[in-house]
Automatic annotation (TrEMBL), chain A:
This is UPF0210 protein H5993_00115. InterPro entries: UPF0210 (IPR007841). It comes from the Bacteria. CDD domains: RNR_PFL_like_DUF711. Homodimer. Belongs to the UPF0210 family.
UniProtKB/TrEMBL annotation, chain B:
This is UPF0237 protein H5993_00110. Residues 4-77 form the ACT domain. HAMAP family: UPF0237. Belongs to the UPF0237 family. It holds the Pfam family ACT_6. Transmembrane segments: none annotated.
């Protein structure tokens, strides 16, 4: 028994906000496909509520036995556009509602997978799903949606980019929260346990458990002990701390999988902030030495942080997956919000930051009168960064009707609150109206 | 099953005695004890063996109640957590 190690673990859990962000059960719905949509929905409800019936209970048992908070219990399913296409329906809101009902029955926090993968073109169900997004998200509470519009292997579907700009604007008019539940990806991953972008890929096993860890507070506390030390010491400290956090994720994930009798998939090594004090990625960057997140030097600090988290985590678990890195959602991070309010963090800088960390323009509130073409153009820019750099990027922007730059919108809970950020007033109408596909990039001659 | 009990708070007379009494009620065996003062805080760690794993939640709840009354942070955690985090 090593008192110092026990004390360290206790400290992380008690005062540095260390938690398991999520245990997520992925469930394949491929065997629920039916030409009759009512029958398909019944099969979906039955399968999800049967396979995940013990998810919440097992999660609570682990919380009690190990003394580790598990913030969320979630389910992801096969992209609904693939499941619903056979029905020939012209509206998939019904499918979203059945997922919502299943989530409510199970007592889980979110269900993800109201999704479509359209990077190279539309199949029959994809456009129907995109058209259904605003109503599906406005009329449900637990359902999360995502659309993959690009990839390094196949380029960017600019028709989908245009359609999604329109869907985001339409959704915002129904309910401001709809777009907090919609992520538009390039290079989406198949085993992501985080929301709102999680879905269960078609190449995954029938049922699987994935775990997502958190822990920016723990990294910050560790860095407070190496003030003034050179960058290699900082990187080493982050690696060691990430290792310990990830070991906890591996333990919880494998115990959960074992108790639920399903295979354990991956640990997602992401540093996921919450609006709570001391649980902020921005504060980690500021501890590294950036005066305020968003100023010069932020990209370098973030690149190092993101890389060190991966290096530390990779050895700590048997399979790494998901998005793995550092998240930079504005509304969910107290340090980011502070910097926006102080005028030191802009969308342009956030875009640069997304080139070196996981995901992208995340939880950013923008004026409600932002043209749909501007939102599409933001999606296209992010997708291009992901496509060229072989990484996942995403957009989750939230137009807030009736609000302008300088005002604030409250989302509540883990989603926090956000100041409305300025977008560039020049509108790239002609770019978006072209449509078509941006061809896949060359994978040689990298400069 | 093996577990680690941690007690953190302001030092006073009888903490170890009270905790041990509570554990004895459930036939919990104390394998190892370490006690120190860190940053003016009383920090005690015990490695214990719980004969009936089903009683874990009940023992943990009772310890937590005791902690709340005595203004101490008392927590029981499965040993596997510490092994996973600190051993390769």
């Amino acid at each position: 028994m090593d008192a110092k190690q026990i004390q360290e673990t206790t400290q992380m859990l008690a005062s540095e906000n260390l938690d398991i962000r999520t245990i997520t059960m992925g469930i394949s719905l491929l065997d629920c496909i039916d030409s009759n949509s009512d029958r398909a929905c019944q099969k979906i409800y039955d399968k999800v509520t049967t396979k995940a019936q013990n998810l919440v209970k097992v999660g609570q048992q682990i919380e009690s036995k190990y003394g580790i908070p598990i913030a969320n219990k979630r389910v992801t399913v096969t992209p609904i556009s693939l499941i619903a296409a056979a029905s020939g329906d012209h509206d998939y809101v019904k499918y979203a509602k059945v997922l919502d009902q299943a989530a409510k029955t199970l007592g889980i926090d979110f269900i993800g997978g109201f999704s479509a993968l359209v990077e190279k073109g539309y199949q029959a169900g994809d456009q129907v799903l995109i058209k259904s997004l605003p109503a599906a998200l406005a009329e449900t509470n637990y359902v999360c949606a995502s659309v993959n519009v690009g990839s390094s292997k196949s380029g960017i579907n600019m028709d989908a980019v245009a359609d999604l700009g329109e869907a985001v604007v339409a959704g915002s008019k129904l309910d401001v929260m709809t777009n907090a539940k919609l992520v538009i990806f390039c290079n989406a991953v198949q085993d992501n346990p985080f929301m709102a972008g999680g879905f269960h890929g078609v190449s995954e096993p029938d049922v699987v458990i994935n775990a997502g860890v958190s822990g920016p507070g723990v990294i910050k506390a560790a860095l407070e002990k190496v003030k003034g030390a050179p960058m290699d010491v900082v990187a080493e400290t982050i690696k060691k701390t990430a290792f310990k956090i990830t070991r906890m994720g591996q333990l919880v994930g494998s115990v959960a999988a074992d108790q639920l009798g399903v295979p354990f998939g991956i640990v997602d090594l992401s540093l996921a902030p919450t609006p709570l004090p001391g649980d902020s990625v921005a504060e980690v960057l500021e501890e590294i030495g950036v005066a305020q997140v968003g100023t010069h030097g932020t990209t370098a600090a973030l690149a190092m942080l993101n890389d060190a988290v991966k290096k530390g985590g990779v050895m700590a678990c048997s399979h790494v997956g998901g998005l793995s890195g550092a998240f930079i959602p504005v509304s969910e991070d107290a340090g980011m919000i502070k910097s926006v309010v102080a005028g030191n963090l802009s969308i342009a800088k956030l875009e640069a930051m997304t080139a070196v960390c996981s995901v992208g323009l995340d939880m950013i509130a923008i004026p409600g009168d932002t043209p749909k073409e501007t939102i599409s153009a933001m999606i296209a820019d992010e997708a291009a960064i992901g496509m060229i750099n072989n990484k996942t990027t995403a957009v989750r922007v939230i137009p807030v009707p009736g609000k302008q730059v300088g005002e604030t919108v409250k989302f509540g809970g883990l989603l926090g609150h956000a100041p409305i950020m300025a977008v560039n007033p020049a509108v790239s109408n002609r770019l978006i109206h072209r449509g078509g596909l941006i061809p896949a990039p060359i994978h040689s001659f990298k400069n | 099953m093996k577990a680690i009990l941690t007690v953190i708070g302001k030092d006073r007379v009888g903490i170890i005695a009270q905790v041990s009494q509570l554990l004895a009620k459930y036939q919990v065996n104390i394998v190892d004890v370490s006690q120190t003062i860190m940053d003016d805080n009383f920090v005690m760690m015990m490695m214990v063996t719980i004969p009936l794993a089903d009683q874990f939640a009940q023992i943990d709840a009772e310890l937590e109640n005791f902690g709340n009354e005595a203004h101490l942070e008392v927590k029981l955690r499965n040993t596997k957590l510490f092994e996973a985090m600190h051993n390769i």
